[in-house]
Amino acid sequence: MNYRGDFIMKKRLVAVLTISAVMILGLSACGGSGAAPAEDAGSQAVVDATKYGYGGSDPVEAAAYQYMVEEISKNYDEADVSIPIVTIVAEDLTDENDVVVYGDFGIDNYNIEGDTLKCVSGGNYPGVMHMKKDGEGYVVTRMDQVADGGDFDQSAKELFGDYYDDFMNVYSDNDARDELRKIIVTDYVHFNGLSVTQFQDEGWDPVELYQ
Predict the structure, then answer these.
(1) Among 3, 58, 140, 193, which one has the highest count of C-beta atoms within 10 angstroms of its own C-beta?
(2) What predicted TM-score, i.e. pTM, was given to this entire model?
(3) Which range of residues forms the domain containing residue 164?
């Protein structure tokens, strides 16, 4: 799908830190308070994240999609479908038992009404995911979320460290987030064979999906 590739190349900021890069740059993993524990799903191969709307090849990103749907969506009333929005700012792969993933993560929950996905709930969860290697894939072991309200900025600086400016560039770009959402929802619909042509937030005009 060409619409996806061009946008991701231009808009998705990913700094994947290999072991050698970390040795050169002297970067280290970041932690934080208010960790959200994750369930251990057991040993597994790379997650087939197409059922979550992700068609890429990064097993770390696939694990993030899986976590948002299978764990974070539990915070909401059940809906027909839950579709994540994942924007990874950086990945630190130094320690396969504590892979650190910095990003802006979100979840939208929809009910299917005719050819429309009607958004009924959702939220944004910027922060840092910690993962461990699990077979050929990864599982999230905990997630440290940026604080709300007046503590947001200080919390984001503590969690993202050297990646704070990169995170804020992503977090503040509403146009890019809207475009990414349209891409991911389109992918989800295609991957899962839904007869849906648009999605709609309450009080807003529907957004037509890519063909």
Answers:
(1) 140
(2) 0.79
(3) 2-106+124-172
